């Protein structure tokens, strides 16, 4: 799909079609990064979103001993 750049004040932007917004579950905030001369747009994570899963994975990989301390 080709999308034209449009003028927005002194900047330029694109309009994202509703079908793409729906497919990507985009809401109010987006994360935009540039990788290898490509713009990558993803849904922005909330504050601390995903931390629980990372903590659970780390705890499974490095379990506590019976005293509640890390085993190295």
Explained architecture:
The structure is a single chain. With 72 residues, the chain is of the alpha+beta class. It has one domain (6-61). 25% of the residues lie in helices and 25% in strands. It contains two helices and four strands. Strands 1-2 form a two-stranded antiparallel ribbon. Strands 3-4 form a two-stranded antiparallel sheet. A hairpin with a 2-residue loop joins β3 and β4. The mean pLDDT is 85.
Task: Describe the protein's topology.
Elements: E1 6-8, E2 11-13, H1 18-24, E3 30-35, E4 38-43, H2 51-61
Antiparallel strand pairs: 1-2, 3-4
Tally of helical segments:
2
What is the string of helix and strand elements? Answer: EEHEEH
* Biggest sheet strand line-up: 1-2
Described by the principal axes of the CA atoms, the overall outline is: elongated
Strand content: 25-35%
Number of strands: 4
Rounded radius of gyration (Å)? 20 Å
Mean pLDDT reading: 85
Poorly predicted residue ranges: none
What is the CA–CA distance across the termini? Answer: 51 Å
Proportion of helical residues: 25-40%
Largest pleated sheet: 2 strands, antiparallel
Structural class: alpha+beta
How many separate domains? 1
Please outline what is shown here:
It contains 2 helices and 4 strands; from the N terminus they run E-E-H-E-E-H.
């Amino acid at each position: 799909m080709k999308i034209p750049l449009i003028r927005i004040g002194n900047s330029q932007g694109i309009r994202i079609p509703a079908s793409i917004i729906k497919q990507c579950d985009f809401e109010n905030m987006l994360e935009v990064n540039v990788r290898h001369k490509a713009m990558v747009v993803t849904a922005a994570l909330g504050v601390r979103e995903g931390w629980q899963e990372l903590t659970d994975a780390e705890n499974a990989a490095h379990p506590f001993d019976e005293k509640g301390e890390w085993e190295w």
